[in-house]
Design a protein that fits this description.
By secondary structure, the protein is mostly helical. It has one domain. The chain has 8 helices and no strands. α4 runs parallel beside α8. It is globular. The termini are far apart. Keywords: Membrane, Transmembrane, Transmembrane helix.
Amino acid sequence: MSGATIRGTIEGLGRRANPAFAAGVVAVSIAALAATTVVSIRQHTYVHVMAGVLWTGTDIFIGAILGPVIGGLEEEQSAAVFERLTPKTAFFLPSMAFLTIASGIALALRLEIFAHSGPWLALFTAANVIPILLLLGWRLNAYGDWRWQVPFAVGTVGSLAWVATTIGAFQMTSPAIVVALALVTVLSVQGFGFLMPGEVRIYKEMVSAAPNTGVISAVGQQNAMLGGVQGLVQLLLIADMVYLRWGGFPGLL
């Protein structure tokens, strides 16, 4: 996928989502994350929890309620729903996911419950960046495009270099933190490596000379199902966070 196509896809999705909505949800997420560096721990926790609620709630709603309803519609009707829904989720869900994950890691560091974080964050970064970029290249048929090759090379070399420079200090951290990192990796790889390329495919089909409603409907329903899986994994993550708060560290907050 060329740089122009990437920009065109983002702009096109933004126009269909409503430019104010698309720009607003991204700007609010970035501003909220920036604010966590200066607000109190209580307010930081609120940002993290509310972003997680919005992310999890949306995925569960799409997977458990909206998906089955759309599955019972005719192909053209199903495609029409996804043509309206996809542009908005393409901005909303990645923004909430990024805000939840980034603010959560920052909060764990701030509360000093993420022991030996350096090597773990290096491993976590490599375990996310490399698979996501590989999946993006595969799903978008971009392995032969230098515009994919350069980010992949930089991301791979950079993340592995971080691992190499920190692995010597590796020590075990809290089991609850390890579980959280593993679950977040599953969510990130599935979200950015499968769901996001699916949304791009829906958009490209929507703007093609002869849109295939069957493809739009099928990919949309697949994304809805994967969204439900995301929701279930997020519930496991919430259970782990409850343990971390009330079980492993009962004196926090």
